[in-house]
Design goal:
single chain; Undecaprenyl pyrophosphate synthetase; globular
Length: about 230
Amino acid sequence: MDTQMKIPQHVAFIMDGNGRWAKKRFLPRTLGHKAGTENLRKIITYAKDIGISYVTFYAFSTENWKRPAEEISALMDILLTYLRAETKNFVKEGARLNILGDLSDFAEEFQNEINNSVQLTKNCDRIIVNIALNYSGRSDIIHGINEMLKNGTVESITENDFSKYLYTKDMPEPDLLIRTSGELRISNFFLWQLAYSELYFTDVLWPDFNEKEFEKALKNFTQRDRRFGGLKDD
């Protein structure tokens, strides 16, 4: 790793290109999702080893329910298999699993498996791994408003106050968003949280996004001048 590289505190990923990766290899889309899920381990390990504190993976959006039922079912099975295999490794590596989104639309078995993994890793403190499931930026904001109303908060509030009602409460906003596969949009992800994030887009498909590609993104991030609306220091 380049010792001059600036290390962000929080990196978010839109993991795009699993289907195209499979198509290029004349494989079913489900095998693309499997390859994409298996890629998580090396990316999480690399992030932890270089000192990144939070990583967030956009795994399943609220809009993804529009996909064929067979593909959704297969994706859930892949995620369950991954969690069953990786939870012990999460504990070993000191990775705490956190879920962003509404799990209530998923099958009870899926919810139980997710919650079990969250509980087993709750004391890990080397890196926080957020998996965004049944999540979107708009639904996050609506969720926050509803939570605020339930809490009886009806008076004027600040941005900082409101951020405490979002799924990402108690964590820093992403310094860097990485989207793979060449698409140049954020697809209803972290609409509130990305206000001052640096955006990095790559043509590399998610299953092929390895440590070398991650380092390229971080080197690009290092060159950015983050002013947060202010002026550059002379």
